[in-house]
Amino acid sequence: MIIGVPKEVKDHESRVGVTPAGVKALVDAGNKVLVEHNAGALSSFPDEEYKAVGAEIVGGAHDVWSPANMIVKVKEPVEKEYRYFRPGLVLFTYLHLAPLRELTDALIAQKVTGIAYETVRDRDRALPLLTPMSEVAGRLSVQIGAAYLEKERGGRGVLLGGVPGVPPGNVCIIGGGIVGTNAARIALGLGAKVTLVDVNLNRLRELDDIFSGRLHTLYSNSYNVERAVCAADLVIGGVLIPGAAAPKIVTKGMVAKMKKGAVIVDVAIDQGGCIETARPTTHSDPSYLVDGVVHYCVTNMPAAVPNTSTQALTNATLPYVMKLAKLGANVAIHEDEGIAEGVNTFNGFLTYKAVAQAQNRDSTSIGHLHP
User: 292 and 260 in contact (C-beta within 8 Å)?
Assistant: First the structure.
């Protein structure tokens, strides 16, 4: 199989879809790997390392996309990449289609097999390709939030850990999944007072045990959420419904009652965000104010630490890339239910129900199209 690894073109996206280690494994298995010039440079993987393990370095995006049977990326294609879509192309990347109707239309129109990292399942029904970036984003969210609490960035001027004689900052985390758990770990490590809100009581019990009672857990309802958000210096949104638009847990009214100079980091922004006042931002222009509250809603947060993020992501994705390359997408979809669940578009059809619901359109089960 010919596998293409293009350079990411989304704003300040510095990760890369395959590392030199992955290229070596693919080449040793008999595949041809095309890597766009400098695709891995921002992740500290220069062209020379790719060439040394058998990759062919090509000059531009067209030279990667056109010959490839499968494109392995990190982020969803942007509009200028739509022209490379064609029937039969396999696209393996984060897609996050729920809020992206135009991209969905383009994939369907060109009959691209779009397999989304964020909806692939493993045998335990977990999301193995979303987990590593959720771990990075969760930990990074506190680091970023702490920086934006500094006065020069528009924050309240609060040190999350406090000092003797001065209380620590208050952190409110919405959602007790991978993002929330990792955010809690870092926030507690900094010495902050941390409250985590979730609707799943069993998960709250687990987190209470994991953190030995140091984490304040709170059942999610509008009353509790409002009280926790209004008391917080930093609010981190980490609510996920796989493939679907994130529910709006924190309303505009709640944000209006927050402390001036408080900070919101909405990690769920890829799926539309779980804060009603959140809108997608970029690393070039990452923050904005609403009612005096700083909002940081960058859709590719882990790109801020690309070396760590690329290695964490590709550790998880490479086994799937290898399987798709060995069997071809059609056979892999048939044989592996987890890969089949990752298919969002196939042969001109939208196949992921949660995306269809978010976009108010019909979907067709992959099982009906590819029995």
Answer: yes
- What is the residue range of 162's domain? 135-304
What is the total count of domains within the chain? 2
Q: In what side-by-side order are the strands of the sheet with 90-93? A: 56-58, 32-36, 2-5, 70-72, 90-93, 113-116, 343-346, 349-350
Residue tagged active-site, from 198, 233, 266, 270 = 270
Whether 156 and 244 share a structural domain: yes
Which among 304, 323, 356 is the end of a domain?
Answer: 304
For the stretch 265-296, pLDDT in tens is 999 998 889 999 999 999 999 999 999 999 99
Is 270 in the active site? yes
Same domain? For 223 and 150 the reply is: yes
Which one is catalytic: 96, 233, 266, 336? Answer: 96
Is there a catalytic annotation at residue 334?
no
pLDDT in tens, 102-153: 999 999 999 999 999 999 999 988 999 999 999 999 999 999 999 999 999 9
Six-digit token string for 14: 């510095």
